[in-house]
Amino acid sequence: MAQGRFVVFFVVALALAYVSVISAFWNLGRRLPEAIAVEGLAEHPDRIMGRATLSFRESRGKLDSIDFPSLRRALARAPLEEEPFVFTAAQLAASGRIAEAEAMLRESIRRNPRSREGRLIFLTLLAQRGNAHEAVTQIEALYRLMPEQRPVLRDTLVYLASFPGTRQSTLAAVSEDLHKRDILQGLARSGASASMLLETLDAFRDVVPRDARESFVASLSGPLLRAGDPRGALRVWMHFNPEAYADGSVLLDEHLNGSFAPPFGWEVRGGSDGYARIGNNGLEGEHYGRRAALLAQQTAILGPGEYTLSVLAENHGRGLSFDVSCNKEGDIATVDLESRENRTHLNVPNDCPAVTLELRARPSDPPRKSMFRITQVSLERDEK
Description:
The protein is an alpha+beta fold. The chain has 14 helices and eleven strands. The chain has helices spanning 2-27, 34-42, 45-58, 68-77, 83-94, 98-111, 116-129, 132-145, 150-162, 167-173, 177-189, 194-204, 213-226, 230-240; strands at residues 267-268, 270-271, 274-279, 282-287, 293-300, 305-315, 320-326, 330-336, 341-348, 355-361, 370-381. Helix 8 (132-145) packs antiparallel against helix 9 (150-162) and helix 11 packs antiparallel against helix 12. InterPro entries: TPR-like_helical_dom_sf. This is Tetratricopeptide repeat protein.
């Protein structure tokens, strides 16, 4: 007992003496020899591992930039650090010893779950082997650790979700709605078919963001429409709007109350030349007369034949018209809004898979502001 107390007193006295010496140097305006401080810091395990990590990043993964002997010495002094395991794994992977590399990486992540380099290298090996389930786990962790790399991580998810060998396991492994939406939008942008998008939607169930539903739906159906597959776009769009066309109507939302999202519902626009919006009494807005402007539009899939377009405008302003166009034919009909009731006939040709109805405003000289309110737009097939 007495010996134990002596050891404690000795340690305390030694610590006090050390503090006194440091204070004395400080009070005299002198510093400890710089060589001692610099060498001590330079050989600190954290510094060695930090230098190795920096070299690895700056050289874009070149292993010859790493001082492995120093790393091994650092590991001996700090056995809980993960960096030596990460870089040794990279070395093993480069020589084709994948199983050993993965074991090293698992250990590095166990030691430091926030190891970005460890997870990135592990992700690369998993993706190369087609182990989509574990690859998705690493991607979801990296989303949180490296939010600035979201585009790259998203593209990796999209690749795994589109490649036949990893598709099903990827869809089953993704757990967070954000990542599911990234996959869906990435697939749409990369030219995925309507069937692939619908299969993915069925796997993910309800992933639509409540605060951005319209833009999300448009981001999936829009690329198909622009790629010349309007029926595929409609199939995807109908997944979110199964009640559409239930009444047999040709054109949706005839009373312009915003019942359906674009592109098969009304899309309204606004800018420096005018605006349109869905109000309590239909489509309303202003045009300032300076330049031509597209104010609203809707896409519809019609069979070939004769149709009648009718527009009811409570306030029709000046220089407004509804134009009906087909991608291949251009404009096939125009109805100028010159009175309360406006009507025109149009012929949809056989090679026109979809038409677009556009509310357009023409400029005036001198420019004059014009207000409008449209309460109904209908399109009906003519009886033969």
